[in-house]
Structure formats: C-alpha cells, structure tokens
Amino acid sequence: MDRTTTRSVTAVLDGPPYRTQLSTRGHEWIADEPEDEGGADLGPRPHEFMLAALASCTAITLRMYADRKQWAIGPIRITTTMDRTQRGAEVQTLINIEVELDPSVPQEQRERLAVIARSCPVHRTLENPIQLRSAVV
Fold first, then answer.
1. What is the pLDDT of residues 78-112, one digit of tens each?
2. Least enclosed by CB within 10 Å: which of 10, 29, 54, 110?
3. Mapping DSSP to helix (H, G, I), strand (E, B) and coil, where does residue 96 land?
4. Strand partners, 23
C-alpha cells in the first residue's frame, strides 16, 4: 500500500546576514552560519539540522522499539558526524551514526537495536533516491 506524508518547514531570511528564522507547526527556531563564515553563530548550520534530524529520529525509533519490547535499555545517545568532500560540482558525503547504550544492555538486544537504528524514517529517506524541485515564485 502506498502512503504519502507531507512535512513542511518555512525559512525566512530577512535581517542579519545568514540568520534564518525557521518555523513548522507553531515551532520556531534559528539557523545561522558561524562567525568565520560571515554569520553571527545564532543557531546551527543547515547541515547540522540535517544531522540532528537523523540523530533524533534514530533515538526516537530505538526508544519506541525498546518500549514496545518492554526492554529497559536506559539512556540512548546518538552522535551523527558528516564528512563532505567537494571536487568541483561533485559532492561525496559520508554520514556516521554512533549509537551508545548502557553497558548492561544484553548483546542480543544490541544487535537487534543496530538493525532497528538503520530503519528510522530519516535514515530511510537519506538512503533512498530524493527528488528536489525548486521554484522561484
């Protein structure tokens, strides 16, 4: 069965260089660039938001799964790191996802959670073809 979901974020850049006001579903936050890139470092960079989306989605997916299985796994810590190399127009990107669990979590649960971590919706989005459409209105 096909299922389509729609998500939307609005970005408004109207003021200091690179300070961008973001909003979705009544939530507001700021993206910016570091001072050494000409910004005021008032918020994360756009790529950091992408990494945050992946890290938080992975953590939430693991928590939902563990709760459903009634596994007491304690805190979940996800660190996402991106290495991006650009040669002319070609861009190569490697994203690492590190999952840290309490040492008391049994090995068999760890192995299952490693599989589940790769199935979070943001992970699946990034691994599959993405089509971008852009329009200036």
1. 999 999 999 999 999 999 999 999 999 999 999 99
2. 10
3. strand
4. 10, 28
Contacts of 122 (CB under 8 A, 6+ apart): 53, 54, 57, 58
Nearest to 121 by CA among 33, 28, 54: 54
**Chain centroid to CA 124:** 11
Per the DSSP assignment, residues forming a β-bridge with 12 are 21
Q: How many angstroms separate the CA atoms of 60 and 118, rounded?
A: 12
CA-atom Rg of the chain in angstroms: 18
CB 44 within 8 A of CB 80: no
Which residues lie across from 83 on neighbouring strands? 94
Name residue 26's amino acid: G
pTM above 0.70, yes or no: yes
* pLDDT tens digits, 36-87: 999 999 999 999 999 999 999 999 999 999 999 999 999 999 999 999 999 9
Q: What is the dihedral of CA 55, 60, 62, 68, to 10 degrees?
A: 180
